[in-house]
Amino acid sequence: MNREKSREIFEKGTTLMPGGVNSPARAFGGVGGTPVVFERAKGAEMFDVDGNAYVDFVLSWGPMILGHADPRVCDALREAVAKGTSFGAPTKAENVLAEMIIDSVPSIEKVRLVNSGTEATMSAIRLARGFTGRDKIVKFIGCYHGHVDSLLVAAGSAAATLAVPNSPGVTAGTAADTLLVEYNDVAAVRETFAKFGSEIAGVIVEPVAGNMGCVPGTREFLETLREETRKSGSLLIFDEVMSGFRVALGGAGEYYGIVPDLTTLGKIVGGGLPVGAYGGRADIMDAVTPVGKVYQAGTLSGNPLATAAGIATLEAIRSDSEFYAKIDRITTRLADGIERVAKDAGVKIAVPHIGGMATIFFLSEQDDAVRDWPSASRCDKARFAKFFWKLLDSGVYLPCSQFETMFTCIAHDDATIDRVVSIAADALKAI
Ligand code: KE4
User: Fold this and answer.
1) Are residue 305 and residue 411 in the same domain, yes or no?
2) Per the confidence metrics, is the pTM higher than 0.85?
3) Which of 159-168, 272-281, 324-333 is least confident?
4) 272: Cβ below 6 Å to ligand 1?
5) Structural domains in the chain (count)
């Protein structure tokens, strides 16, 4: 495939922006080579500046569950933009989107709109600390919650519970109140609460992890988190920035039937415009300014364009009672197809999937599945990279890392999925 214009534009970008990108996830660090520069997208396809077409399974890292340039979202944006782009004052659209979120997500009685998933998780953590008067936060190895200082941490020396910074610029003091625990490890959760329970303000978890690849939380793990947080008086925060409106209308909370104290949202809730949100029990949310004293603010929060795109997206989803059955069917067709052709090619992979989330893991010899970060980190990253480039050169755009989740949308039709599986079959034989 000729991608000369991509190369030229990207090279220029590297002289203007760090790494030529505005987010490192796009830099192809996990697969090597030059990122593709895109010009436009429609439905399940994206088109690069050299005129190449790709079936898209990145979908802007999750938001585009309706597919790109959905006419309902575009019409809503055209109508909104004609009325002005930002007021910095209350608008009715914020009530509409807030009410749709509250009606959709069982755990949310009140919600605050912000501008990104990171803002949502950062605010939820501050709220948990402010509401409980405690300092410690538990997070899980392999989970990512945005570039929040206190969550940019790695397992420390002391039995992998006391965290240390894993990014320059994060102070030891900031990391000191973060406890790191192995994902899906029930015993480690119980041990951590036995040791630190009275000091823990909150636990933040991706109930379906998507940032080590797609690794669903086990029911026992999530139920233990709910039980231990309730017992210790700390708050359970479901980070559903990725899984929200993707695994079910009410997210993983609905899927598992577990009600956290707070839920963070992003991506789909903005329909591709910058929206994040955090919400939960009304008594907790009323601790946020201006009602309570936990400070949080934002110039463009609840912005008229972002709320218009979010409302149009959620309206489209909620208008189709079969929406998530369709998404699950698309993802299952893809996962089953890829597993079938990998078996035929004698390549050891697993394709865990839930709702519109999936990952093609190139398993190590010792693993038969990916259940946590250790098993994810043993996967064959080099082989994934070869697979990635074979598919890219055949017009299929996967997330550029073994440790990312691929996403499906309602515009991925059967013929497209079957064509992708056939392309994967050829690629798996060649790598
Ligand atoms: P944003 O600040 O990127 O909107 O959201 C941060 C975030 C929070 N929580 C979860 C579970 C997330 O997955 C994310 C962001 N996800 C990444 C994809 N792994 C976004 C891609 C990027 O950083 O460019």
Assistant:
1) no
2) yes
3) 159-168
4) no
5) 2
